[in-house]
């Protein structure tokens, strides 16, 4: 008799005996005695399982109690799932194209909850796919306001796909400013935002809808001015007087087929930050979130990894800043950390970390490249210090000099220039060495810790940035810069002191251990 037939006969005989011993109670006593109660297949299922082992059919799927599945030849099954998912994606694209021709409203079958069915994300969070129907979508509920829909859509885009606001049961009361409501973000654009930073097939209709969500130009000018006065002084990405006026003129007047979606995303991020720092708007308004998601959708039109450029780097930097400072998502810092690594690679791919005279750039453009790269370096270092992680860019691999903040067309108050010069110098001489010591595999010697502590404490602060020497009330941005300078030195000193305490503690432990060991030897 062939070996396979012998094995099959023995397996079937054992399975029949086990089925006879099964008491039809889950888990059966037979399995409990064998110590495998959690895997009890309950009689007949056991027979089917063992037979499938002897003669496994392609893609066999056998179930036991409690929806436990035993797979044979899972490779073919996963290939089939991938084929079906791709087919579903093609049908969704076709349905979206047809729907855009007959209506401005998204098709009920293209709700974000239903689009997640074909992805593995649905396996690890969110409601079950079988419970999702077009009629069950909360976005179509007439009893839910536009603000509630936007808030739910925003929180639904968290990393694990679960809504933080729904989980906590808390709701934020939002008072909108006089005579206005946040721009409505259509469902298909929210879907694009959810795919960030990966590209999505877009057409001019989507780009048109994103631009139509911009506020009136006069209002946009006011918001950008608030951003310049109340926020953009912290990171000097472009100090030219014509930067914001030219960007506004371009985005509002350029024909839609020639409009760069990345420049549009840059303007939307400035509007997002400006609306959040505008003192005339109430705290907690949804303008910032709406403009942020519109910017993410605009960025997705062109593949980031294939065609990076300076405009998209600028927009992504502002997205990093948004997540670090303005986002209320409790996972924003993790998202910002991952995005920082991605942006750092894009910057290095563009060669911003190298002095490249062969590029023959005009001085103004070269200053802008240096400014954004050094601001990226500074943000990366501070984030790494906060999280205790290695930086995405090592200063030892950089030879581009810090920006000078002077030149034709470059405009910034002298106090602001002093702050940025001090920030770059403080990063080079204090923050970067301290980060290297903190993330090193071997702990630094005690003398090195004392040296770093002395650098932090003795680092000179210009009198204009020293709040203790101020003689007259400062402007708003100068007051904030003085506060940041003070906090930077205090945080650095605190981290250095913590390192010293840990080092001294380890030394004391080592001395105590040595003393105990020597005493035991003497005795």
TrEMBL record:
<protein>
    <recommendedName>
        <fullName>Xylanolytic transcriptional activator regulatory domain-containing protein</fullName>
    </recommendedName>
</protein>
<dbReference type="InterPro" id="IPR050613">
    <property type="entry name" value="Sec_Metabolite_Reg"/>
</dbReference>
<feature type="domain" description="Xylanolytic transcriptional activator regulatory">
    <location>
        <begin position="336"/>
        <end position="409"/>
    </location>
</feature>
<feature type="coiled-coil region">
    <location>
        <begin position="74"/>
        <end position="101"/>
    </location>
</feature>
<feature type="compositionally biased region" description="Basic and acidic residues">
    <location>
        <begin position="144"/>
        <end position="154"/>
    </location>
</feature>
<dbReference type="GO" id="GO:0008270">
    <property type="term" value="F:zinc ion binding"/>
</dbReference>
<feature type="region of interest" description="Disordered">
    <location>
        <begin position="126"/>
        <end position="183"/>
    </location>
</feature>
<dbReference type="GO" id="GO:0005634">
    <property type="term" value="C:nucleus"/>
</dbReference>
<dbReference type="GO" id="GO:0006351">
    <property type="term" value="P:DNA-templated transcription"/>
</dbReference>
<keyword id="KW-0175">Coiled coil</keyword>
<dbReference type="InterPro" id="IPR007219">
    <property type="entry name" value="XnlR_reg_dom"/>
</dbReference>
<dbReference type="Pfam" id="PF04082">
    <property type="entry name" value="Fungal_trans"/>
</dbReference>
<dbReference type="GO" id="GO:0003677">
    <property type="term" value="F:DNA binding"/>
</dbReference>
<keyword id="KW-0539">Nucleus</keyword>
């Amino acid at each position: 008799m062939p070996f396979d037939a012998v094995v099959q006969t023995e397996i079937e005989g054992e399975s029949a005996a086990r089925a006879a011993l099964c008491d039809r109670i889950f888990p059966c006593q037979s399995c409990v005695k064998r110590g495998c109660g959690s895997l009890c297949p309950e009689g007949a299922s056991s027979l089917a399982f063992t037979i499938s082992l002897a003669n496994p059919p392609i893609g066999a799927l056998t179930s036991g109690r409690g929806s436990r599945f035993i797979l044979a030849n899972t490779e073919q099954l996963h290939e089939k799932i991938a084929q079906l998912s791709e087919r579903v994606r093609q049908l969704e694209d076709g349905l979206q194209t047809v729907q855009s021709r007959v209506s401005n409203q998204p098709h009920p079958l293209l709700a974000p909850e239903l689009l997640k069915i074909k992805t593995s994300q649905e396996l690890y969070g969110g409601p079950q796919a079988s419970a999702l129907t077009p009629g069950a979508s909360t976005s179509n509920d007439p009893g839910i306001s536009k603000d509630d829909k936007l808030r739910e859509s925003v929180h639904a885009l968290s990393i694990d796909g679960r809504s933080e606001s729904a989980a906590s049961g808390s709701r934020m009361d939002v008072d909108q400013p006089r005579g206005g409501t946040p721009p409505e973000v259509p469902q298909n654009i929210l879907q694009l935002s959810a795919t960030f930073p990966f590209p999505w097939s877009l057409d001019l209709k989507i780009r048109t809808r994103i631009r139509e969500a911009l506020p009136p130009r006069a209002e946009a000018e006011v918001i950008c001015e608030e951003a310049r006065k109340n926020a953009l002084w912290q990171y000097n990405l472009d100090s030219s007087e014509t930067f914001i006026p030219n960007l506004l003129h371009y985005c509002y007047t350029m024909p839609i087929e020639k409009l760069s979606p990345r420049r549009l995303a840059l303007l939307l991020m400035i509007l997002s930050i400006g609306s959040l720092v505008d003192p005339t708007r109430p705290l907690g308004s949804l303008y910032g979130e709406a403009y942020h998601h519109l910017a993410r959708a605009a960025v997705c039109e062109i593949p980031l990894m294939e065609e990076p450029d300076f405009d998209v780097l600028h927009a992504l930097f502002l997205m990093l800043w948004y997540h670090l400072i303005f986002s209320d998502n409790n996972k924003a810092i993790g998202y910002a950390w991952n995005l920082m690594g991605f942006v750092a690679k894009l910057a290095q791919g563009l060669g911003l970390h190298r002095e490249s005279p062969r590029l023959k750039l005009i001085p103004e453009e070269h200053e802008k490249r240096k400014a954004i790269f050094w601001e990226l370096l500074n943000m990366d270092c501070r984030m790494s210090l906060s999280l205790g992680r290695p930086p995405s860019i090592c200063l030892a691999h950089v030879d581009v000099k810090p920006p000078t903040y002077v030149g034709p067309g470059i405009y910034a108050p002298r106090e602001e220039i002093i702050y940025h010069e001090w920030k770059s110098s403080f990063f080079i001489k204090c923050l970067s060495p301290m980060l290297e010591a903190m993330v090193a595999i071997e702990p630094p010697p005690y003398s090195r810790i004392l040296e770093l502590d002395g650098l932090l404490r003795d680092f000179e602060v210009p009198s204009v940035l020293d709040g203790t020497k101020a003689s007259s009330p400062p402007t708003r941005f100068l007051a904030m810069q003085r506060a940041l300078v003070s906090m930077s030195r205090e945080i650095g000193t605190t981290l250095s002191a913590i390192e010293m305490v840990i080092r001294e503690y380890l030394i004391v432990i080592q001395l105590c251990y040595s003393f105990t060991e020597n005493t035991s030897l003497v005795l």
